[in-house]
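Title: Prediction job returns without error message
Component: structure pipeline
Severity: low
Priority: P3
Assignee: unassigned

Description:
Job completed but the reporter wants confirmation the result is attached to the right record. Sequence as submitted:
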Amino acid sequence: MQASEPRPPHKSPIRWELKLLFCALVMFSIVGLTSHLQPSLSAQDQDLKSAPELTPVDQGIDETTRLILRTLRDSDPQMSDELANAAKLMIDIRLFEDARFYIGRISKLNLNSEQLYLLQNEIGADFFASIHADDALQPEGRELARKVLKASQAVANSPARIDDLIKTLNNPDISVRSEAFRKLRRLGEPAVAQLLEVFAQKDRVADFPGIRGALKSMGIHAQGPLLAAARANDIQVQAEALRALGYYRTSESLDVMMRAYLSPNVPNSLKAIALNSLDRTEFGYDPAIIEERLYRRSREFLTGKRPVDGAVLSSVTIWYWDNQKKKMISSEMDHLTATRVTAARRAADLYEINPALDRNRELYLLTQLEAAKRLVGPSKKTNVELIQKTLGITREETQAVLGEALKLELVPAAIACCELLEKIGNESSLSATAGQPSELIDAIVFGDRYLQFAAMQAIASIDPQKAFAGNSYLVKLAVFLAQSENRPSGLIGHNREELAQNYAATMLSLGLYGNSAGSSREFFQAATTDPDLEVLVVTDTLDNPSFGNLIQQLRTDWRTRRLPIALLYRDADRGRRTSIQLQNDPLFTAIPFSLQPNLIATHVKRLDDRIKPWKVSNFDRRRHGAFAMQWLAKISSDRDRYYFYRLSPREQTQLAKLLYVPGFAADASALLGSLGTPDSQRILVDFASQSALPLDEREVAAAAFAKSVKRGGTLLTAADVQLQYDRYQASSDEPKESRQVLADLLDAIEERNRSAGVQ
């Protein structure tokens, strides 16, 4: 029984002057005498009292508009349909404030889902789409439109409602059948999914004929669920899906029918249906041609050369058949993930048809890993145990797939391979081939942050005990990641400092901390030492080297290869030449120079959005930095075992910066203390000697220095030692606690000298 709305108390009729009669007749069509959309008034009266009041009629508007407005107000619409029609009229005569008032009144009625659904049917979905998009009707328009859409979807897609419609598909009355089909067709894929589920219910055989007829005529809405049902573990469902797909001459339906025709796992009865469907499409079914087609199409989906249906939308619905529940389930995903999932399905079909061919196996593994990682996202690990069980992938195969993934720039698949090697890899996984480093080192050099971290975790888990090709990259990466301050930033280069700073300030609107550089050398240095950078902005004012050479250097360095780069150019020819050189780089854009920083910020945001959802989050920055610090501390504390990992003086200086980052002083002190080098000892002493720094952090650094001296002796020069005595002598005016830190440093030096017999 449909929800209904009681009418408000009857009002005395309004006596109109003759000149208002026409307007009254117009309004009579707007304000109906009956309605079935309103809830009871017991709870709504108080809500309506709190609604904002209409402003007085503007006497400056033309007479016709004023008469319509007065007529509407005098009619005092109360029902939801009356209010919606009133809002429509106000929009037509461009009185948007009044339209917002009536839209807001509808929201105040607190209609339930059924009533909102009926309201949409009565007024039309186009009205609610228009008030959602019109800026002049906000926020009331968007709020109501969202309520109506959500409620209408819930009611329309209700399984009980859909099942009632399905049961009428065999009604003797053709008009009843036609109306049921019309409603099911309008519901689209959810209705098709439920139609297919009925075939798994053996007690509803009587409904099958009507459902077959509906599936035959559903159109493009049927394809997604049918493709999934063709792989169901229920033979009846498979048969009906294959039979229905024969009526849809699409590339997707052909792929599925070809798989059913050639797969050794499909019963002959289903093969016959697939063959009949292929005959209906007038497509040849030579096995060799079919295999080549599936291989080609899977590669095209995998490399982005072929989009899935619906790829122009913000998301795509992919359907699956749940073998346990015997039900259709759907998953919303971005179009790129949907494309990769489709590639995995085609490759799985091909591998099922001919698993003996090596290239089929390689494509199968590559597509499955790419899809699996895309589905879980960058911050979560793939279920490697399930992957091993499902794919039966070996260590050698994993390394080969990693190499192919890097060649095709399939970062998710490469990350999944690294996560597998973290579990099944060994020291041979790091062996060089023909003088070239292993695939895990190639993954670090590739430049993607998530991939670098996955490779680092894999090598750390393998825990090699001897040198291997490229081990210096692992140390450099760990030092680089450890420097993160968990502060996403952007870098802009301009030879005029004040302009560079102005542009950098606009980064704040993007949620980025802005940094600036005044030369190409300074820009490159900053870009390759800051792990928190998310976007680089180069201007053609930079020289020595030229801005073009700078961009090429950034694109070849393993720390910046995958960062978005924007070029701001003043000379159109320069911008065009650089754009041609980097035309195949999806993370590069050239922007005409503008003195409006906010305009540039808009372009930069679009560029930054290209790396979503794989841009590094603050959570992951902390995770990566903490892991890098732990690994560095591990290899530094056992130099006998990890002698082949060496930190250069420059890298030790980079780690010294961590002493000055709040919360990092203890870890950085322990790490530097364990290195036992002249540079690390000097860094600790200099830090502990600065009275302006927090006392507890200075004490930690002094203790780390003492441990370093006790373990390996004093590595400071005579000049360094004399400087410490001078610092102590000059600290007579400092607090006792501060002088004690300086005294502790001297004690450590002197104690080691005494134990070594130095006078």
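Comment from assignee: result matches the submitted record. Confidence is low (pLDDT under 50) at residues 6-51.
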